[in-house]
Here is the input.
Amino acid sequence: MARKKIIAGNWKMNKTPTEAVALIEELKPLVANDEADVVFCVPAIDIIPAVEAVKGSNIRIGAENMYFEESGAYTGEIAPAMLCDAGVEYVVLGHSERREYFAETDETVNKKVKKAFEHGLTPIICCGESLTQRKQGIYIEWIRMQIKIAFQDVTAEQAKKAVIAYEPIWAIGTGETATAEQAQEVCAAIRGCIREIYDEDTAEAIRIQYGGSVNAGNAAELFSKPDIDGGLVGGASLKADFGKIVNYK
Ligand code: 13P
Here is the structure.
């Protein structure tokens, strides 16, 4: 069975609530496409107006992070139940920016992945190597380690529903996209790792995105690769170009 593509925007720390609604209204007609799942991952404060604004459309709302505890004395954090109650369906976990600036580790990502599944949220689990790791030729081992820890104690049934985003750090926000061949190589290796951890069915079901300077010009080639099931898009998700990415065919 062919996997449905999933094309998600990661807004990062952009757009006030008012701006978020305006952008959604602008993009709504441009991203109408039933062939792919379309997700807007928005800042926490934009979630409630965004959920309201996408009602009746094909757009689903994701969060950019969450905490792994249910509730309590964790000032500034957001609990999974809060996201669910607000109408969020996806959550980006372990983005390289959170690993770099906010001390996210493979272990905290694993805790968050398990917690997301407990609450019925679909995690978009990010992995990816630095330029140094790529140059040293250790990127596949590095990413396999990230995946193995992220999926520790996650069942095959849960893993089948997960989304993995392969985002080479050197390609994020740099305009330097991985070639389709480079992206395919790693996405195939990730699927191979999932096959080793679980089984063929799980490896075939799980969706693996590429992220890193995806734009309207390179999306079609990237998404045509057999192991690339869509994209996690930063900068280009904040403009009309996102419509072209969603309708890349
Ligand atoms: P850019 O598309 O801006 O390179 O960002 C990629 C990314 O980090 C998406 O999560």
